[in-house]
Structure to design on (1152 residues):
């Protein structure tokens, strides 16, 4: 997969926020390429040593996809918002389309925890997406914070900038939103 | 959700978060007022914040990428999922690596979760290797230490080689790298790792591959080392490795970075290689940087052989300087200049920890999770070490550990890991309840002799023992040396029963109290404290309200009640201030310990763990520690907390005191505190069978095992169709109903939960079972389908002091006889309690009968007849309406033969048969190797079954008076 020009990506995002539905189709393969790049690291034989490296890789991927520093973008906050939304769409779609029930069972398994016996499980992206939509109905700010942070990969300060509140507020709202989502996803 | 409503909830959460966590619940209650729904929602969300601590820690991209990796890797990696390997049902994959895959599995035989490693095919293709692997793995599996993950089983199933180990829930140090944590916690865990290495090295076992992936931190902050000794056994063959290195240059770096210079130079390694590797791990964890790791293997090896790593304080200025010295010594290239043993390293780490504990700048503040998670740079409370920017996973550990840490560490704390371990008694059977003479030179204990328990004394270091109660034909147990060493108090079942005191060499035994168990002396030697109820084990049937404590004046026998609350097995503190005891917490099978003033007053609970049993508390002779037995590390072993003897305030987190045993109990100290004497127990009971000639009334041939192995089962009963046994399986903290096939295979759980389920009986049609259980407060009879469905409580009779008796089916299946408080009720098992007619067996003045078995012809109920002090085996005849005594002075439970004319019972290792017409008792079987319990004859009269118990308890010493 050839590297995508950041300028070009920015353009795609701008179009998408203007209502261009094709932008989604154009961006999806780019995101998938990034996913493959990270997934490969997870599967590599050296995986035991790479928790930090994969984290860095994910960060890099976000930067490559949404290079706001270099983007000549008049409204950074808006840009972040759009890109987080888009990432959410693409990643949830990906999760929804995963191969089979069996794979769905596997998805709870984390390869990164090689040799380790741990109880950690990753969030179910599809269920999370639904819960997030529900949350947005009565507390839009919390839902947006989750979208920006979790799907958009923004840190607390960046999220605070987009929303226009302090970092402390973002942290508190994030914690409360997480608690509510956690309850929703663990309802049986 | 209504927006206004949500706003209310949201605001209340904010307000609640402003105040300390311990007060939050009360606060929410107060603020919510009558609005119960609001209160509940807020409390739920607050709880979810704590529970969901790790939730959404990774970004969505990361989650998706991992899912993609799983999909791609999936199909061959997960081929074992939901399959059965030997007795293990595979539930899910929990890890994968060069050594194969690791699954969470359930051992259907022993009914427990295990981690099952399946070795890679390239390893299993070599028969010779596999054989060697199995032999050596068995040696390793003898390692039993709370900081080492236990190997349960090694085997081969249809060509698949596997290892089953203890399943530990937690995270590896690798997972935790990059988090924030306190230096003290790292040191604490490192000390535990030293303990584990020390124990293994003593056995000549070297790990060879200590690295962050092989060290787990449990949720409660406890460290466990994985894969002990397996590195060597599973190393890839040299050719294969060479190939591997060629094809993927530089990718092996993870493990080489922890290799010792000796390993890198391919010299012979000894135990010091583990110390080196743990030094690298320790350095990396403290600084966030591996000291030797290079861009490729070559660079890494070069660095290990020649590079002097920078002092850790230069990378993290928050670290105490003493650690620089320790790490420099630990990572000295010359093994002769480095630490020579794990114990030596441990001593140095311990010193640093004590300094940290006592220095105010390192004291603990309350760690707000919000603050910890804020991710703001430079934000510190107390001395949180910040490393990297990744996820903060250690939070739970920090909170759990610091909840306990209140005061300073005692620099004089005794370090039992340095003690010499000596076995003091080695007779077959049970030796227990040791008490050490104040001078520490001899010990008294109880052991079986000539059919009853007597009290013996023996010199520490000597082999000859003296029976101090040889003249007593009843059980004498629980000896306790008086503080001056002149007297021994003990419990005796002789008539009259009670607490006796005798001279230390067995003379002049005299009764001082007709009530009491487990005497413990006051320091002035004038009184003993005893419990009214003789509860020896945490699994002893729970009877709330009956375990009060009394204080007895030894000279004149006068008694006073100390407390009427539930309490067992008291221990008087050495300066007389307080009495420690253990109690039934009200949660099934759980026990906890508390102390109360010796003059009476409010108890202070010591541990408050909800998932484990803590029991058998004993004060250290200086009064600074309370030692106790606890199942907190998955086995029964000793722990201690620092405690204020005057107030009972607990001053430290519980700390393991290591013994080489799966089940340790009954500890006692010498006055100087340098000798700790205790009991190691290994009880097993399994089903045995032997052919039986019903006509001749005798067993034929040799007995054979139906089940075998390290487990304890009780009262097996064969199903009416003869295909399965139902039995009680005694698990560590629960007792369950389990069935197993007649051939000892195919174990199935009927119940698997915390309540104690006992005395399980098949209904005559084999479709139902009845048993007693404390699953709904009180011990009552329950009935249900044989697979455990449809359980229903049949009796509601038990009171604080008396539980319901055994359920006994009528051969017609329409009645269930149950003894309760002097009367036997005949209940209809198909009806509920309030619909029962409940006729009773006729009452007879001065006689009670505890029924146990209904004869196959339906005419007689056999059981134990109690007349005053006297117990006999007998039966009630429905035809004649009379009670008949058959065997006097026995309280064995009888089981009818198919002819309804004879029954059998056991005593010791023998089985007896008696004909109720002639009343003649005849020994029909004996297995001197075991204790024979609950014998019965199969329905067709051809087999005799029983549970064969091997009780083995020996007394051991941890000795600090001699140099190791």
């Amino acid at each position: 997969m050839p590297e995508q020009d950041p300028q070009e990506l920015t353009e795609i995002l701008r179009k998408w926020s203007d209502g261009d539905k094709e932008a989604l189709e154009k961006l999806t393969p780019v995101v998938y390429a990034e996913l493959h790049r990270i997934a490969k690291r997870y599967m590599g034989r050296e995986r035991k040593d790479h928790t930090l490296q994969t984290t860095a890789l994910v960060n890099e991927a976000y930067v490559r996809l949404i290079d706001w520093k270099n983007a000549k973008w008049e409204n950074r906050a808006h840009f972040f918002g759009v890109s987080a939304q888009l990432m959410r769409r693409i990643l949830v779609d990906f999760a929804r389309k995963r191969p089979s029930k069996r794979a769905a069972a596997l998805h709870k398994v984390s390869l990164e925890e090689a040799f380790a016996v741990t109880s950690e499980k990753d969030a179910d992206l599809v269920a999370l997406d639904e819960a997030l939509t529900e949350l947005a109905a009565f507390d839009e700010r919390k839902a947006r914070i989750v979208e920006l942070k979790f799907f958009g990969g923004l840190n607390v300060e960046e999220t605070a900038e987009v929303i226009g509140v302090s970092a402390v507020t973002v942290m508190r709202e994030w914690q409360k939103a997480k608690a509510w989502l956690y309850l929703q996803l663990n309802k049986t | 959700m209504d927006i206004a409503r949500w706003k209310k909830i949201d605001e209340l959460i904010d307000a609640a978060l402003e105040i300390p966590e311990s007060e939050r619940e009360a606060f929410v209650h107060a603020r919510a007022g009558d609005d119960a729904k609001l209160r509940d929602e807020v409390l739920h969300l607050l709880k979810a914040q704590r529970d969901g601590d790790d939730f959404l820690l990774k970004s969505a991209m990361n989650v998706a990428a991992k899912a993609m990796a799983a999909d791609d890797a999936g199909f061959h990696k997960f081929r074992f999922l939901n399959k059965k390997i030997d007795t293990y049902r595979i539930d899910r994959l929990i890890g994968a690596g060069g050594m194969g895959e690791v699954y969470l599995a359930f051992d259907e035989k022993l009914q427990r979760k295990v981690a099952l490693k399946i070795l890679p095919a390239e390893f299993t293709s070599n028969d010779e290797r596999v054989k060697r692997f199995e032999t050596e793995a068995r040696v390793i599996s003898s390692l039993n230490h709370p900081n080492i993950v236990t190997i349960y089983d090694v085997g081969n199933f249809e060509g698949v080689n596997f290892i089953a180990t203890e399943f530990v829930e937690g995270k590896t140090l690798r997972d935790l790298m990059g988090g924030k944590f306190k230096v003290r916690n790292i040191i604490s865990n490192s000390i535990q790792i030293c303990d584990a290495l020390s124990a293994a090295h003593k056995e000549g076992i070297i790990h060879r591959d200590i690295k962050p992936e092989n060290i787990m931190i449990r949720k409660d902050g406890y460290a466990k080392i994985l894969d002990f000794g397996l590195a060597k056994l599973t190393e890839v063959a040299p050719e294969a490795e060479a190939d591997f290195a060629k094809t993927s240059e530089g990718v092996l770096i993870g493990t080489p970075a922890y290799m010792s210079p000796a390993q890198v130079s391919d010299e012979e390694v000894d135990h010091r290689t583990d110390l080196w590797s743990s030094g690298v791990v320790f350095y990396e964890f403290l600084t966030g940087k591996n000291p030797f790791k290079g861009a490729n293997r070559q660079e890494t090896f070069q660095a290990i052989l020649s590079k002097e790593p920078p002092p850790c304080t230069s990378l993290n200025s928050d670290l105490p300087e003493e650690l620089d010295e320790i790490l420099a010594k630990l990572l000295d290239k010359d093994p002769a200049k480095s630490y020579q043993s794990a114990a030596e390293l441990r001593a140095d780490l311990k010193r640093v920890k004590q300094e940290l504990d006592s220095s105010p700048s390192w004291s603990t503040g309350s760690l707000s999770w919000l603050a910890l998670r804020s991710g703001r740079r430079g934000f510190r409370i107390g001395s949180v070490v910040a490393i990297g920017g990744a996820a903060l996973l250690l939070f739970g550990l920090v909170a759990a550990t610091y909840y306990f840490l209140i005061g300073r560490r005692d620099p004089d704390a005794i370090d039992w890991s340095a003690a010499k371990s000596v076995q003091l008694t080695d007779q077959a059977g049970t030796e227990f309840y040791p008490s050490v003479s104040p001078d520490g030179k001899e010990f008294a204990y109880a052991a079986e002799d000539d059919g009853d328990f007597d009290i013996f004394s023996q010199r520490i270091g000597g082999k000859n023992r003296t029976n101090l109660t040889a003249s007593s034909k009843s059980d004498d147990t629980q000896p306790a040396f008086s503080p001056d060493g002149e007297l021994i108090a003990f419990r005796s079942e002789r008539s009259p029963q009670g607490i006796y005191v005798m001279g230390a060499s067995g003379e002049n035994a005299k009764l001082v109290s007709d009530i009491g168990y487990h005497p413990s002396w006051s320091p002035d030697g004038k009184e003993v404290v005893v419990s009214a109820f003789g509860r020896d084990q945490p699994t002893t049937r729970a009877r709330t309200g009956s375990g009060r404590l009394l204080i007895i004046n030894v000279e004149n026998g006068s008694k006073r009640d100390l407390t009427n609350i539930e309490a067992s097995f008291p221990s008087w503190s050495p300066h007389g201030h307080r009495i420690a005891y253990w109690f039934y917490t009200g949660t099934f099978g759980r026990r906890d310990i508390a102390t109360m003033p010796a003059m009476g007053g409010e108890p202070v609970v010591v541990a408050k763990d909800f998932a484990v049993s803590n029991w058998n508390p004993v004060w250290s002779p200086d009064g600074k520690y309370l030692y106790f037995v606890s199942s907190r590390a998955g086995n029964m072993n000793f722990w201690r907390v620092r405690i204020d003897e005057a107030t009972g305030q607990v001053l430290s987190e519980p700390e393991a005191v290591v013994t080489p045993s799966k089940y340790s109990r009954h500890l006692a100290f010498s006055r100087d505190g340098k000798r700790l004497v205790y009991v190691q127990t290994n009880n097993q009971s399994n089903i045995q069978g032997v052919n039986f000639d019903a006509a001749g009334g005798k067993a034929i041939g040799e007995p054979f095992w139906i089940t075998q192995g390290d487990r304890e089962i009780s009262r097996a009963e064969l199903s009416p169709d003869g295909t399965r046994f139902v039995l009680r399986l005694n698990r560590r903290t629960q007792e369950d109903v389990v069935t197993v096939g007649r051939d000892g295979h195919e174990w199935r759980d009927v119940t698997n939960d915390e309540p104690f389920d006992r005395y399980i009986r098949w209904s005559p049609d084999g479709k139902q079972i009845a048993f007693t259980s404390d699953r709904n407060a009180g011990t009552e009879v329950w009935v249900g389908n044989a697979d455990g469905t449809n359980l229903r409580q049949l009796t509601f009779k038990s009171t604080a002091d008396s539980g319901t008796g055994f359920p006994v089916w009528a051969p017609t299946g329409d009645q269930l006889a149950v003894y309760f408080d002097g009367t036997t009720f005949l209940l209809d098992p198909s009806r509920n309690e309030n619909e029962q007619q409940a006729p009773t067996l006729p009452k007879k003045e001065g006689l009670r009968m505890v029924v146990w078995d209904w004869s196959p012809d339906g005419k007689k109920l056999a059981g134990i007849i109690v007349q005053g002090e006297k117990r006999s085996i007998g039966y009630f005849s429905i035809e004649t309406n009379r009670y008949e005594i058959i065997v006097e002075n026995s309280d064995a439970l009888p089981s009818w033969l198919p002819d309804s004319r004879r029954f059998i019972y056991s005593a010791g290792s023998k089985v007896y048969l008696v004909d109720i017409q002639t009343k003649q008792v005849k020994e029909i079987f004996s297995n001197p190797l075991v204790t024979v319990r609950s014998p019965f004859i199969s329905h067709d009269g051809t087999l005799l079954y029983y549970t064969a118990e091997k009780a083995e308890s020996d007394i051991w010493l941890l000795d600090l008076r001699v140099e190791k």
